[in-house]
Amino acid sequence: MLLRFVSAIAVAFALPVGLSAQEMPAPRLEYVELQTSEGDILLALEVERAPVTAANFLRYVREGRFDGTVFYRAMVLDWEPRPNGLVQGGTQNDPDRVLPPIAHERTSDTGLAHIRGALSMARWEPGTATGDFTILLQDMPSLDADPGNLDSAMHDGYAVFGRVAGGMEVVERIH
In sequence order, what DSSP letters do the residues of 53-67 get, joined into one string? Predict the structure, then answer.
């Protein structure tokens, strides 16, 4: 399944003076349409809450580095609710596509979480993420940063930088 990404569409919110915290608009998002042979997926990127990771993803999109890549992994988890697991796509460490690794943005710092539809960076360890990403089919809080985890590899968790805003049924078909 070949992937094609369409240019990002920015949506900005002006912050009127004098609003209470409850009245404040949501953080600014940028949208990317991912075109697959199974249908289109609309991705909403958290450019304010996860600026480093979202900017990295947008650079891959704008430079065409994801075009023609595939979802190369479907992790199937055998528990409810179903379908459960994730799909993974991106550059697969192709030296002609991959950019240098980026700084890690912990979910404990961004306020984002590994919930159904979350867009998250694949990595070996914190600070090694490049051009591979996952989309979750269900909540996976075990991927969030957890400084108290006995497994030191999970102290920083994985970096969430967006979510599926439309086309979750396409993600499920791909899975």
Answer: HHHHHHHHHHTTSST
What is the H or E stretch that residue 16 is in?
Answer: none
**From the centroid of its chain, how far is CA 131?**
11
Q: For residue 75, give its domain range.
A: 4-174
93 within 8 A of 109, measured Cβ to Cβ: no
Q: What are phi and psi of 50, to 5 degrees?
A: -130, 65
CATH of the domain at 142: 2.40.100.10
Dig out the tokens for 167 from the structure. 């086309």
Q: Given 3-state DSSP classes, what are the helix, strand and coil percentages for the chain, each rounded to the nearest 5?
A: 20, 30, 50
Tens digit of pLDDT for each residue in 106-159? 999 999 999 999 999 999 999 999 999 999 999 999 999 998 888 877 889 999
